[in-house]
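Internal tracking record. Fields below are filled automatically when a chain is submitted to the structure queue. Please do not edit lines marked as system-generated. If the sequence contains nonstandard residues, flag them in the REMARKS field before resubmitting.
Queue: standard
Priority: normal
Entity type: single polypeptide chain
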Amino acid sequence: MEYAVRGMVVIKADEINQQLKESPGSFPFDHIVYTNIGNPHSVGQKPLTWPRQVMALVDLPMEGGIDHPIVSSMFPADAIERAKLVKEGLGGHGSGAYTHSQGPMMFREEICRFIEERDGLEKGAAIENNIFMTNGASAGIEMILNALIADPSSGVMIPRPQYPIYSATIEKLGGKKVGYAMDEKKGWSASLEELERSLAEAQKDGIKVNSFVLINPGNPTGQVLTPEAVRDVVKFCSKHNLVLLADEVYQENVYAEKKKFYSCRHAARDAGLDNGKVELVSFHSTSKGLLGECGRRGGYMEMVGFDPLIRDQMYKLASSNLCANVPGQVMTSIMVNGPKKGDVSYEKHEEEKKKIYDGLRKRAKIVGDGFNTIPGISCEPVQGSMYCFPKVDIPAGAIAAAEAQGITPDTLYAVSLLENTGICVVPASGFGQEEGRCGFRTTFLPSEEEMFLVVDKVRKHHGEFCEKYQ
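SYSTEM-GENERATED OUTPUT FOLLOWS
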């Protein structure tokens, strides 16, 4: 298996970073700009205050936190009350004991109410026993794929390009990747014709396709699908009896005007397929959105439309890992059930979230518009997530040089960019791009000033790179 976002280029960046510490001035830059992974706090995003206050009180022993004589002078009343409820939900054991393998019932109830409110579902539509709390979305994804890939003939349909956790995990488990092409010229959308073509071709080759991955908003492509497009995918999966894996971790990260996140759960209901006519697993995470709490490793998955016997088998898998880490579970609870209007922390919490969101939206435009001003580089408008995925035109000499080194052309380009500017990006080939395309994926999480510099440095480097290999 290979995992590009922490692959060859990033390893090289870490080596250069160490050299800069040991020998300042050894490169034409003084630090590495890591834009390879969606890790908000590592590049300066400040954590939201209220979630951290609640987390601190949950972790502290009672006498040093909630029951301390002056606790009300150090923490707001709503954080104290919420921490009390969380501790009750944890059975009074605090954050240092195992929980139920699917997560505490209180937390799962909160997730259900969040899903119902988000998708306009009737109360009780989301069921607590269908919720599994996980160590980030990736742990849930791996658990489901582990159940789906029974033997080497098992196939999973994944977008091309796609986030490499899918290709890497499918490779590790010995299954078959079945790619369906996202059309860059049509805003990274996938037609039903392409889905049918991909499935039929795989079946012709003897692959038993049993599942379908949808990433919305997109990673690495940054698109936000229309409700019609999401419903088409749900109907396609129902028609062909495919388990739909809905990666929806960027549901808060929608920046384009007139665009709105529309979940697969919502689409199934609207298409009349939420009564067992489609098997759906949706994933969410504390790592993205406006929390950006990657290190907490919090998340959940919801299973809809499955036979209870299948859900019981997934419970067995979850039980074999005892439970997801408890701080991550607490942060997930906080994510889906934040301060309410009238609470003392509500306005400050919303102001902090708005500041983060506005900054992300502004930087998405900086990189999207900026790359499009560089001759030889083009980028579809960034509608959502935390990434842009520009296409790069490079001369034939660079392609030949890459072949001679046994690497892809975009890896050659990414390494050159790193060594000359200190910017660490991920070669687009790591995401399974269209044959003949060269490009890279970059986050826009660093500061606004840093992202302007990134665009300017890429502009200068691209000209020099093309001149070198012309």
